[in-house]
From TrEMBL:
Transmembrane segments: none annotated. SUPFAM superfamilies: P-loop containing nucleoside triphosphate hydrolases. Belongs to the ABC transporter superfamily. Macrolide exporter (TC 3.A.1.122) family. The lineage of its organism: Bacteria, Pseudomonadati, Pseudomonadota, Alphaproteobacteria, Hyphomicrobiales. GO terms for cellular component: membrane protein complex; plasma membrane. Residues 6-243 form the ABC transporter domain. Keywords: ATP-binding, Cell inner membrane, Cell membrane, Membrane, Nucleotide-binding, Translocase, Transport. It comes from the Bacteria. This is ATP-binding cassette domain-containing protein.
Amino acid sequence: MTEPAVRLRNVHLTLGAGRSAVHVLKGVDLFVERGESVGIVGPSGSGKSTLLMVLAGLERADAGEVEIAGQSLVGLSEDQLAAFRGRNVGIVFQSFHLIPNMTALENVAVPLELAGHPDAFERAERELGQVGLADRIAHYPGELSGGEQQRVAMARALAPEPAILIADEPTGNLDQETGRQVADLLFAEREKRGMTLVLVTHDPNLAHRCEREIAVRSGEIHDDRMRSGMASAHLGETLESRPA
Ligand SMILES: Nc1ncnc2c1ncn2[C@@H]1O[C@H](COP(=O)(O)OP(=O)(O)OP(=O)(O)O)[C@@H](O)[C@H]1O
Ligand SMILES: [Mg+2]
């Protein structure tokens, strides 16, 4: 069996210091197979975004094992973590996080260029075409609708062909119809590229589109189940509830 896309074991993380310290992740175990789609749900403040940050190598666990795409992140330097992210992880945020004084094309191409891709601009143009924005590449983020901005952010996340796509409430700032279109695109690209998808959402409909749903409560995995009719990647079972 190939190594899982995500392997977390007993991960703890406290954010903040002194009186504002919060024990956010309290012993999280999480395994995600390659190619699986996982929707993470849970109340506000339960630690969902923090968990994604750990998966992305943007936050370091205080304790426990973190292995992403076969690589242990424990003990990596900041530079090594950045290089790891560039190769393996694409991230999409609720509020798009585009650079306002760069065009759509530059927003996608510049990170590729910094990562050493020689054909960064051609590739960026292709990726923007894939998300339906061929006629918007010279627009600045302020000249794009929310849905279009999120599609630029998706093109940027997908362009390096990451093994794992992480999305934190990717439709949270969009109206229902636009959100559905962005989600359609997200799942279509994931299917086409065989990527692992881990997304956080407050939208039950979006979570239901994932093969597996995980509920987080107070920094712990509270529930973890495959969707009915969808085969577990490694057990071949359906409607399986995994103990947290
Ligand atoms: N830098 C920080 N210092 C201290 N506490 C923090 C810090 N960042 C987050 N927290 C706390 O950690 C908890 C989890 O935050 P997190 O952003 O992961 O929640 P969430 O589940 O994503 O919530 P939401 O659904 O509202 O986005 C919150 O109670 C938050 O106040
Ligand atoms: Mg959050």
